[in-house]
Structures are given as C-alpha cells and as structure tokens.
Amino acid sequence: MAYLLEQKDFIFTILIVITLARGTKQNENLCSNHTYGISIISSPPSDSSILHLSLRMLNLEGHLSFDNISHAAKDFGNRYYYLPCAILYPKSVTDISTTIKYIYDLGTTSDLTVAARGHGHSLEGQAQANQGVVINMEHLSGENMDFYTGNVPYVDVSGGHLWINVLHETLKKGLTPKSWTDYLHLTIGGTLSNAGVSGQAFKYGPQINNVFQLEVVTGTGDVVTCSENHNADLFHGVLGGLGQFGIITKARIALEPSPIMVPKTLLHQEHENYKAIHCMK
Ligand SMILES: Cc1cc2nc3c(=O)[nH]c(=O)nc-3n(C[C@H](O)[C@H](O)[C@H](O)COP(=O)(O)OP(=O)(O)OC[C@H]3O[C@@H](n4cnc5c(N)ncnc54)[C@H](O)[C@@H]3O)c2cc1C
Fold first, then answer.
1. Among the atoms of ligand 1, which is closest to the Cα of residue 76?
2. pLDDT of 185-206, one tens digit each?
3. DSSP letter for each residue of 149-168
4. Residues 112 and 155 in one domain
C-alpha cells in the first residue's frame, strides 16, 4: 500500500511537472520573437520524455516496451508507417484498463493515442498509433478458452487469439465457429472490428453476426460486458467499429457441430484424430 501511495505521489508529481512544462512552453511561444523568422527561444523541455517516464511507473503485470517498436509501425498494406512511442504487452485485461485509464486521466495534458493491434493484417495503418501506445493483443492470447457445449454452443475467447487456434480447440470438442474468415491467421478482435467474411457468410452472415457477448475496455478504461440486450450501443459500436469504440478483450463466439469431412487444407493433427474417431462410429 505504501508503495502504491509512493507511486501515486510520484505520478502526481510528474503530472504537475508536465503541466508546468507545458505552461512554460506556451509562455515561451507567446514571447518568442519570430520577426526575422528565427526563434530566439531555446528548445523547451520535451513533454514526451516526461510522459515516457510516467508510463514506465504504471503498475502492470505485463510490460510497456519503449525499444524495438518499429514493427508496430508496419502493417500488411506496407503503405503507412507511424512509429508509436511504446508498445503495451498486456498479461491481463487489467493491464489494458490501467493503461487506458491513465492516458484518459491525463486529459488535455497529453496527445497520446492508443491503438489495438491484432495480427497487423489490415492495410491502412489502422492498427498504428502515431507516437502513441500500441497494444499488442496477441500477448493476451495465453488466456484459456471457456466452452459451453449445450444446445446453443459457444466459446469465450480472448480478443488476441488467432482464429486458427480457436478452430483447433473447438474441433477437439466436435465444434467449429459458425462464421469465420477464409484466412485464419487473424485475431478475433481484429476481424470483429472489420466484419469478418468467408464462404459461410452467405449462410450465417459475417462474424459480427455470430457473437453473443463481448468484454470491452472502453476509452475511459472501464471494463464493460455488452451484448444485444445489455449495453447494446457499445456492442453494436464495437462490432465492425475499426477499433474506435473500445478494445475487445473477450468475445463469446457462436459454434456449431463441425462436419465430419472437411477440406484437406484444414486438416491438422488434432482434426485428423477427431475425424478418425467419428468415421469409426
Ligand atoms: C492475407 C489476408 C487474408 C485476409 N483474409 C480475410 C478473409 O478471409 N476474410 C475477411 O473478412 N478478411 C480478411 N482479411 C482482412 C482482415 O480480416 C482484416 O484486415 C482484419 O482486421 C485483420 O485482423 P488482424 O488481427 O490482423 O487485425 P489488425 O490489422 O491488427 O487490426 C485491424 C483493426 O482492428 C483493430 N483491432 C485489433 N484488435 C482489436 C481488439 N481486440 N479490439 C478492438 N479493435 C481491435 C485495430 O486497431 C485495427 O483498427 C485478410 C487480410 C489479409 C492480409
């Protein structure tokens, strides 16, 4: 507790320093002499280094990295390159909530933006944050998948899981997602933010039509559960929302019994075993 208080005090002190630094900066700008196109003001203290320092003080289970961040400035489109100031590698939903709450509380003292990054397969710099914080969602994917195998089966999965891994796990139970993407090395959160279409969409609709419930970290850092009947605005905003309405940390995905025969390309060892068992019946 004492440690927490000390940490809070430290962060508070840093915020005061940021505010003073910004005030000084503004005053300097007001007083600067640009008559001859030359500023007589020496460089103001860098806000960003103070912000980095304060971010480092956050109490996280995972960690924030300020080095080796260039990969988060690239995506599949390879057309946009926005370098973040840090990458968050969350170990828990609380890590994401803590970081966003902290940035939200900074208010107008900071220009920091936040972007969730799934597998980085979007094209237009969508998962990038210029000098902001990129959240590496795949780092969350260590969380367990929880199954309900009753009449209307579903699986609760982390937003950072790849669909290919969800398929592997569901097949072990004789189930598959009802709607998926044709290419499966994409994250749950990434495709639910973009719709997610495949050959099954003609029958069941896109992936966003086959989600029962979401857990979302909102822009204020709150962790909110939403569905068709509960916080419906958030639910419908986040689905297909391009990451702008909150961060999907968990999704309840609709499942159906898997077919006994599937195309050869989808067969992996676990599925071979499963098929062999069913064919023997
Ligand atoms: C080779 C290839 C094959 C593809 N095949 C298909 C296909 O068959 N069907 C199809 O529908 N699409 C397909 N796409 C498009 C792809 O589904 C989308 O670009 C998808 O958004 C990429 O998912 P990702 O995990 O890489 O997300 P990213 O590219 O990392 O992120 C995409 C967007 O989602 C946001 N985001 C990521 N995670 C979260 C989260 N947890 N919560 C909130 N927002 C989040 C990001 O901020 C960003 O705005 C394909 C793309 C490629 C490159």
1. 53
2. 999 999 999 989 998 899 999 9
3. -SSS-EEEEETT-BHHHHHH
4. no
pLDDT digits (tens, 9 = 90+) for 31-80: 233 322 232 333 333 567 788 888 999 999 999 999 999 999 999 999 99
- Amino acid, single-letter form, for residue 143: E
Residue 66 sits in the same domain as residue 89: yes
Same domain, 104 and 213: no
Pick the residue whose CA is nearest to atom 17 on ligand 1. 191
Mark which of 138, 167, 189 sits at the end of a domain: 138
Q: What is the CATH number of the domain that holds 183?
A: 3.30.465.10
Q: Tell me, yes or no, whether 93 and 208 share the same domain.
A: no
The closest residue, in CA terms, to atom 32 on ligand 1 is: 190
Domain span at residue 218 reads 141-277
For residue 211, the surrounding DSSP H or E stretch is strand 211-217
Instruction: Record the tokens describing residue 264, joined without a space.
Output: 């050869």
Cα(57) to centroid(ligand 1), Å = 31
Instruction: Spell out which residues line ligand 1, taking CB within 6 angstroms.
Output: 75-76, 115-122, 126-127, 137, 159, 181-183, 186-187, 189-191, 193-198, 242-243, 247-248
